[in-house]
Structures are given as structure tokens and as C-alpha cells.
């Protein structure tokens, strides 16, 4: 099993303070993320954290971009890589050597060096968890599938503000391009 996992990486996406703070019952909601993180580390699977951050003044954000132009208006803070808002939630603290990739759009690949990191490590299988299911998880899954990565989505290590959208994506859309399972079920495949 370790041979297969040597080409697998766990991507935990947008689990940063500005985004996690939008969810009530956060400590309970992050338990599957913590389970996935523990599973990956226990099995020697590389973990890569992905976050959204911009330069001071947000020069990367076009006023025509409906989603991102709201950032400066939304009170999410400066969202620079050093701001507290852009830091990974403390319950999912990255360990030394676990990359934190900074992206500039919804997909984990957009404006980041994620693909360079994955290719340099000969990663061909991605296990995805993130916030939001309809945002970073959907966009990253689609782009990763187009780049021919094998994919697994951890259904309970994905959160979305709209439970119905989450359900439809997990049950009907994602299975077309990925294996979908819980963090506990994924752990069982490795143990």
C-alpha cells in the first residue's frame, strides 16, 4: 500500500482563518479534516496546504471578477500571506516541510506553483478536502481531472455554506471524475 501512497498527496484547501471563521460549530466540522491529516502523516503521504492570499492592495484582483472583487469590501482583511486571515487554522497546523501553496483564484492551480510541486514529487493521485465544496474543491477537481490526476474527494472533509449544493456535488457531480469517500473510509483503504 505504501508504494501506491508514494505517488499520492493530500490537498487541504482554503482551511485558513478567514474562511473557516464563516462556519458555526467549527471544531466539530474540522474533525474529518484532522482525521485526513493524521491519516496522511501516519502513512507517509505528502500533505500540501492551499490558501488564498494577495499582495497588499490586491493588485491581482480585477473589479470585473465578481467573486474576488468582494474581498476588499467583505472585511476579510488584507489577505496578504502574512495576515492572520490567510494562515491555516491552528487545528490543522502544517508541519515543517509541508508546503503551503498560495493561489490567486478559486482553483488550487490558478496562479500557484502547485503543479510544479506535484510534478517534482511525481505525484499522480490527489486526495482533496477543502472549503468550499462548490468553490475550491469543485474547481480544483475539474482542473486536476483535465490534467489527468487520479482523484479522491473526502466527502466529510469538504464544507459548503449551502448543504444542498454540497450534497449534489458529492453525490452526483464528483463521482463522475473522482472516488468519493469519507475520511474514515479513506483511512481504512491505507491501513
Automatic annotation (TrEMBL):
Residues 8-184 form the Isochorismatase-like domain. One of its GO terms (molecular function) is hydrolase activity. The keyword Hydrolase applies. Signal peptide: none annotated. This is Isochorismatase. Gene3D superfamilies: Isochorismatase-like. Pfam families: Isochorismatase (PF00857). The keyword Hydrolase applies. Belongs to the isochorismatase family. Keywords: Hydrolase.
Amino acid at each position: 500500500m505504501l508504494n501506491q501512497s508514494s505517488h499520492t498527496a493530500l490537498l487541504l484547501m482554503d482551511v485558513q482563518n478567514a474562511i473557516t471563521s464563516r462556519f458555526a460549530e467549527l471544531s466539530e466540522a474540522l474533525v474529518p479534516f484532522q482525521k485526513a491529516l493524521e491519516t496522511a502523516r501516519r502513512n507517509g503521504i505528502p500533505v500540501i496546504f492551499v490558501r488564498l492570499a494577495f499582495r497588499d492592495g490586491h493588485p491581482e484582483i480585477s473589479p470585473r471578477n465578481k467573486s474576488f472583487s468582494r474581498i476588499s469590501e467583505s472585511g476579510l482583511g488584507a489577505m496578504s500571506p502574512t495576515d492572520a486571515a490567510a494562515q491555516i487554522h491552528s487545528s490543522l497546523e502544517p508541519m515543517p516541510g509541508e508546503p503551503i501553496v498560495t493561489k490567486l483564484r478559486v482553483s488550487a492551480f490558478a496562479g500557484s506553483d502547485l503543479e510544479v510541486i506535484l510534478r517534482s514529487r511525481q505525484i499522480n493521485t490527489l486526495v482533496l478536502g477543502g472549503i468550499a465544496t462548490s468553490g475550491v474543491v469543485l474547481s480544483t477537481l475539474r482542473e486536476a481531472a483535465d490534467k489527468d490526476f487520479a482523484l479522491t474527494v473526502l466527502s466529510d472533509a469538504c464544507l459548503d455554506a449551502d448543504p444542498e449544493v454540497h450534497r449534489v456535488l458529492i453525490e452526483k457531480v464528483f463521482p463522475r471524475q473522482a472516488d468519493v469517500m469519507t475520511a474514515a473510509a479513506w483511512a481504512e483503504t491505507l491501513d
